[in-house]
Each structure stands twice: as structure tokens, then as C-alpha cells.
Specification:
Bound molecules: glyceraldehyde-3-phosphate, 1,3-dihydroxyacetonephosphate, zinc ion
CATH topology: TIM Barrel
Shape: globular
Order of helices and strands: HEHEHHEHEHEEEHEEEHEHHEHH
Radius of gyration: 19 Å
Helix content: 40-55%
Strand content: 15-25%
Oligomer: single chain
Largest sheet: 8 strands, parallel, barrel
Distance between the termini: 9 Å
Number of strands: 12
């Protein structure tokens, strides 16, 4: 079937849960990023979630982003959900629901449990009345999202004993949990890591015991992992060798994400890896071609490298190639 409009995540999550794979949720901010991601998905026939943060919406404008995503669906014919990432208020979620998104996240995870339930429930009621699905969050990831920085000491793992009550009372469609992933390119300090034989930082393992406990309490229910960039060291190196400065940037090992995708995790969020691919490529281009100034010349290889990176994620990490 050839799709012409964004879909919800209901069907894709059901298939992903049963099939032991996850859908990639990639953040989009401009045309080249949308094209890089969707051309990759088209080549390997994968379903997709394209997600837009509050910051992306402020940067690129709601209508431009909607139209870019619609163009990508028409070009690829793939099942693609258009999702609000980290909605921080009912009003923002409502505006995206009214404006054509098929999925929203209400992230009230920094609020007390009862308050998180109340605001999530309010969003769910409005969303479901309009055929839109809702992701909620329990637990707090470390790192940066929009202007909010969560210090490592303020982060905490999801408490499995809270999830049944939360899902029953809110009616949310999927749940983001904190099991040790973190936003951004600096997910762990050097002190939290060990070093492998090549001298590279190895982060502490994810808390699969929490994921397992949560999924036993919520059988068949889709779980979401945020902060799941792996921070490819070839791009960190490319940035650093071409005038950048990103010391000790480290991400989540891909093997752990593959394992999570085999379990109850149906949506894996990736943004920083795309930023790194784009920035590394453009920095190298400027270094190699100081005389060039046509944006198409440096955005083209950046888009091509985003495409390669996303293809690798879809095939080797998420396991969703061929599932569209
Ligand atoms: O989790 C946050 C995403 O990476 C989006 O980042 O808020 O800077 O657009 P942003
Ligand atoms: P990364 O910073 O690890 O790419 O996480 C992105 C994310 O969780 C978007 O919501
Ligand atoms: Zn996130």
C-alpha cells in the first residue's frame, strides 16, 4: 500500500512488538534531514516516525515541517508517523493535534507523579477524540532537551511499581522509560565509563532488569527509549579533526539498542547522531574546500551521510528494514 498522509503509530507498534524490532524515531529540523532519513527508509522499506521538538517548530515553523513530511510521504509512499517530541504543555500538544500531527508526546516526567498523571490524561482525552496517539514518560533522563538540562543527580530510573497505575489512569498509548540512556552527545562522564583496549570510553550498561520488570507489568504495551544515539566515533573524530571540539562524546552501544528492540521497546529516539553526521561532514567539506560557498555543495554530502547512517540504524540496530 502506498501512503499519502501521516499514520498513527498504533499499527506499527503492534507489529514491532510482535516482531521483536523497533521503529526509528528521528528528529527533523529542515529539508535535508527529512530527505536523508526518508530516502534511507525508502531504500530498505522501513516504517518511520519523524519527530518534531518544540525547538524544531520554533526554528522551522509548523507549516514548513508538516509540508516537508507530507512531501516525504508522497515521495516514498511509506507509513510515516508525524510526532511531537517532548511536548511540555497541553496547549503545545493541542496545537500539534489540531495542526495535523498523528502522535504527540506529553513529557511531564519532571512533575510529581499525580501531576504527571493529570496532565497526561488531559492530553490523552483531547488526542483520542481527534484520532491522535499519545506517548508519556515516567522517570527522568539526564542530558539536554530543548532548553532544559537535567543534571545527572536529578535524573532517576523509572520505578516499575508505578507503571501499571500510570498507564491505567492516563490511557496513554506508549510509555518512555528511563533505564540509563541520556540526551545529547555527552551521555556519560569519563568517570562513569570504563575504557576498552582501544582506549575508547565504554558506558555503564543499560538497566535491562528495569525494562524487563516494566514489560512484565505491561504485557503487549509499547515502550519508548529516548536518548538513544550511539555517538559514532568516526563522526566525533571528523568533527575534531576539522576544527571542532567534542572531547569524550560517548553514546549508547548499538548492541544494547538491538537487544532493547527485541524486547518491549517499539520506538527508539535518535537525534544527536544525525547532528553529528551533518556537522562532521560539513566541517570536513569546509576544511577541504575553503573556496566553496554554495550551500548545495555542502548540504548534499551531509544529506548523503545522514542517509547512510539512518540506513545502518534501520537495518542493523532497529531491525525494522522490510517491515513497511
Ligand atoms: O530530546 C531532544 C531532541 O534531541 C530534540 O532536541 O529540543 O534541541 O530540538 P531540540
Ligand atoms: P539523542 O540525543 O540520544 O539523539 O536522543 C534524542 C531524543 O531522545 C529525542 O527525543
Ligand atoms: Zn528525548
Amino acid at each position: 500500500m502506498l501512503y499519502t498522509k501521516p499514520v498513527t503509530t498504533t499499527e506499527m507498534f503492534k507489529k514491532a512488538y510482535d516482531g521483536g524490532y523497533a521503529i526509528g524515531a528521528f528528529n527533523v529540523n529542515n529539508m535535508e534531514i527529512v530527505q536523508g532519513i526518508t530516502e534511507a527508509a525508502k531504500e530498505v522499506n522501513a516504517p518511520l516516525i519523524l519527530q518534531v521538538s518544540k525547538g524544531a517548530r520554533a526554528y522551522a515553523n509548523h507549516t514548513y515541517l508538516i509540508k516537508l513530511v507530507e512531501a516525504a510521504i508522497i515521495e516514498t509512499g511509506l507509513p510515516i508517523a508525524l510526532h511531537l517530541d517532548h511536548g511540555d504543555s497541553f496547549e503545545l500538544c493541542k496545537s500539534c493535534i489540531d495542526g495535523g500531527f498523528t502522535s504527540v508526546m506529553i513529557d511531564a516526567s519532571s512533575k510529581p507523579f499525580e501531576e504527571n498523571i493529570a496532565i497526561t490524561k488531559q492530553v490523552v482525552e483531547y488526542a483520542h477524540d481527534h484520532g491522535v496517539v499519545v506517548e508519556a514518560e515516567l522517570g527522568a533522563l539526564a542530558g539536554i532537551e530543548d532548553e532544559v538540562q537535567v543534571a545527572a543527580e536529578d535524573s532517576h530510573y523509572t520505578r516499575p511499581e508505578e507503571v501499571e497505575e500510570f498507564v491505567a489512569k492516563t490511557g496513554c498509548d506508549s510509555l518512555a522509560i528511563a533505564i540509563g540512556t541520556s540526551h545529547g552527545a555527552y551521555k556519560f562522564t569519563a568517570a562513569q565509563c570504563t575504557r576498552n583496549e582501544k582506549g575508547e570510553l565504554v558506558p555503564p550498561p543499560l538497566r535491562f532488569d528495569i525494562l524487563e520488570d516494566v514489560s512484565k507489568r505491561l504485557p503487549g504495551f509499547p515502550i519508548v527509549l529516548h536518548g538513544s544515539s550511539s555517538v559514532p566515533q568516526e563522526y566525533v573524530k571528523m568533527v575534531n579533526e576539522n576544527g571542532g571540539k567534542m572531547p569524550d562524546a560517548v553514546g549508547i552501544p548499538e548492541a544494547e539498542l538491538r537487544e532493547a528492540a527485541r524486547m518491549a521497546v517499539c520506538k527508539i529516539n535518535i537525534d544527536s547522531d544525525l547532528r553529528l553526521a551533518m556537522t562532521g561532514t560539513i566541517r570536513k567539506f569546509f576544511h577541504d574546500h575553503p573556496e566553496k560557498f554554495d550551500p548545495r555543495e555542502y548540504l548534499k554530502p551531509a544529506r548523503a551521510n545522514i542517509k547512510e547512517l539512518v540506513k545502518h540504524k534501520l537495518v542493523d540496530v532497529l531491525g525494522c528494514a522490510g517491515k513497511a
